[in-house]
From TrEMBL:
It comes from Panicum hallii. CDD domains: RPI_A (cd01398). It holds the Pfam family Rib_5-P_isom_A. This is ribose-5-phosphate isomerase. The keyword Transcription does not apply.
Length: 283
């Protein structure tokens, strides 16, 4: 994307309450807010999400992300739709949770493909668990990585909204890198995933487990009826990410992984000092 792509239409300005809290500045530099402003992490998520919604234009088909940051974008879209500011806008949800949220705030929904689906997805807006210097992402710690990657990979533009705690030098630095696997033979698939990183110091992988009430731990189940393997790295993933991606996807039983490589076109970062940084994908 060039610099022109980061200029929102005049009608999509931030809400006044957000303008009072933070001054946005495009192109990677950050504007200074009043020194008295104190923003919580939720405030930062909200400001970044509202900034991303400025990219939405009437008639667009959107990819609707999942997670706490994306939820703020859904709320903002609902407000604008009810105000009549975004006629013809509809979205494809990346999870059942997002489907319910979007329905609640009045966002019309579309399927991905088929007779009722859009001919194209113009723009997707979603959060991320990690963003590296090349705008590669880790996503899906909430378990929605497969639908997220399908929908966001089908779009023309993918705007990612994060606070600065999500910026990392390497993917895998701050927590699990998820891999969605089919339930049949999941322990076997887990063993094959471990072999990809055999001998790597500090690496370990496990099935994500959940406990319901006082019952025993059971595998976490995604919206697609699959399990999640969590991969942990002592100091992040080193090496060729695309090669590692290929090795994982060649394992029979692996459905998809949570490394979103070369997919984000714009990343909007809300900094803890109240400034916003917008980073565009290099051509």
């Amino acid at each position: 994307m060039g610099s022109a792509a980061t200029s929102p239409p005049p009608s999509m300005k931030l809400a006044q309450e957000d303008l009072k809290r933070v001054a946005a500045h495009m192109g990677g530099a950050a504007a200074s807010p009043p020194p008295s402003v104190k923003l919580t992490q939720e405030d930062l998520k909200r400001v970044a999400a509202h900034r991303a919604v400025e990219f939405v234009e009437p008639g667009m088909a959107l990819g609707l992300g999942t997670g706490s940051t994306a939820a703020h974008a859904l709320d903002r879209l609902g407000d604008l739709l009810r105000a009549g500011a975004l006629p013809g806008v509809a979205g494809v949800p990346t999870s059942l949770k997002t489907e319910l949220h979007a329905t609640r705030v009045g966002i019309p929904l579309l399927p991905l493909g088929g007779d009722g689906g859009p001919s194209r997805i113009h723009l997707s807006i979603d959060g991320a668990d990690e963003v590296d210097p090349d705008l590669n992402l880790v996503k899906g710690r909430g378990g929605s990585l497969l639908r997220e990657k399908m929908i966001e990979g089908a779009g023309e533009k993918f705007v990612v909204i994060v606070d600065e705690s999500k910026l990392v030098p390497r993917l895998g630095c701050t927590g699990a890198v998820p891999v969605e696997v089919i339930p049949f033979g999941a322990p076997h698939t887990l063993g094959l995933i471990r072999k990809v990183f055999d001998g790597l110091p500090g690496f370990h992988a496990r099935l994500r487990m959940v406990r319901k009430d006082a019952e025993e731990d059971t595998p976490f189940v995604t919206d697609n009826g699959n399990y999640i393997v969590e991969m942990f790295f002592e100091d992040g993933i080193r090496g060729d990410l695309h090669n590692i991606s290929d090795q994982l996807l060649r394992i029979t039983g692996v459905v998809e992984h949570g490394m979103f490589l070369s997919m984000a076109t714009t990343v909007i970062v809300a900094n803890k000092d109240g400034t916003i940084t917008v980073m565009d994908k290099k051509n």
